[in-house]
């Protein structure tokens, strides 16, 4: 039996196709807020795709608040008007996978804010998490090992310490793609990784001493090389 393995682009295209078909189904059947969609099994048979494909498309529409799944009951149209729903689905279908430069720009904008807020709101527990990640990063770099994940754990600890759940969620969403691209382009290799130790320490100390502007400035300096690197690849 031949096993078809879809590329990332093919998977995204398939997901968009299923979302389009779910939208068309809602419109064709004139489903109202609170109305129930057919089961995943029925949709997979109707669309001639796997149930997991249908589930991923439904989860994406749930993420944007257009559908609501209730355990043991099924999936329902959310409380949103048809015009608004169609408009939002069109926006979702136009979304493309972010490129590395877009990820870097988004990350920098987020982290300048999270560093500043973390300096204002951090707890002792937050500081412990940051220090653990910083120590793990330092140890790996000094041993000549890859430390991309430890680097990002340090930044995620700052995001959590900022006390803004939305910013924290955004960081969690973009982190897997950042790890992939960092490893692909060898962003944190060599001298840059060694330099990163001191930069991380300075960011940590600014947050620890509750100096928001200094924390923001140190984070900005930390990303200067990354930003330049991103636009030279």
Summarize the structure.
The chain is 73% helix and 3% strand. By secondary structure, it is mainly α. The protein folds into two domains: 8-94, Winged helix-like DNA-binding domain superfamily/Winged helix DNA-binding domain (Arc Repressor Mutant, subunit A, Orthogonal Bundle); 100-230, Up-down Bundle (Four Helix Bundle (Hemerythrin (Met), subunit A)).
Description:
The chain is mostly helical and 233 residues long. It has helices at residues 8-28, 40-47, 51-63, 82-94, 100-121, 124-142, 148-161, 165-185, 190-208, 212-230, and strands spanning 67-70, 74-77. Strand 1 and strand 2 (74-77) form a beta hairpin. The protein has a two-stranded antiparallel ribbon. The model has no long low-confidence stretch (mean pLDDT 86).
List the helices and strands and how they pair.
Elements: H1 8-28, H2 40-47, H3 51-63, E1 67-70, E2 74-77, H4 82-94, H5 100-121, H6 124-142, H7 148-161, H8 165-185, H9 190-208, H10 212-230
Helix pairs in contact: 1-3, 1-4, 2-3, 5-7, 5-8, 5-9, 5-10, 6-7, 6-9, 7-8, 9-10
Number of strands: 2
Q: Determine and state the CATH class of the largest domain.
A: Mainly Alpha
Based on CA atoms alone, the radius of gyration comes out at 22 Å
- Shape assignment: elongated
SSE string, helix = H, strand = E? HHHEEHHHHHHH
As for the CATH topology of the largest domain, it is Four Helix Bundle (Hemerythrin (Met), subunit A)
Portion in helices = over 70%
């Amino acid at each position: 039996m031949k096993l078809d393995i879809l590329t990332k682009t093919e998977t995204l295209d398939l997901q968009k196709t299923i979302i389009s078909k779910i939208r068309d189904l809602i419109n064709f059947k004139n489903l109202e807020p609170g109305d129930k969609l057919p089961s995943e099994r029925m949709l997979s048979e109707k669309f001639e795709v796997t149930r997991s494909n249908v589930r991923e498309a439904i989860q994406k529409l749930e993420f944007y608040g257009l559908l609501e799944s209730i355990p043991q009951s099924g999936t329902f149209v959310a409380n949103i008007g048809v015009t608004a729903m169609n408009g939002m689905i069109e926006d979702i279908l136009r979304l493309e996978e972010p490129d590395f430069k877009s990820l870097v720009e988004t990350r920098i904008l987020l982290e300048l804010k999270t560093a500043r807020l973390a300096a204002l709101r951090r707890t002792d527990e937050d500081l412990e998490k940051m220090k653990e990640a910083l120590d793990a990063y330092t140890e790996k770099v000094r041993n000549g090992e890859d430390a991309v994940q430890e680097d990002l754990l340090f930044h995620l600890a700052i995001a959590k310490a900022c006390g803004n759940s939305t910013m924290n969620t955004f960081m969690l969403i973009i982190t897997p793609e950042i790890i992939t691209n960092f490893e692909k382009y060898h962003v944190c290799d060599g001298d840059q990784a060694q330099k990163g130790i001191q930069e991380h320490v300075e960011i940590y100390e600014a947050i620890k001493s509750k100096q928001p502007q200094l924390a923001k400035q140190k984070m900005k300096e930390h990303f200067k090389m990354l930003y330049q690197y991103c636009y030279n690849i």
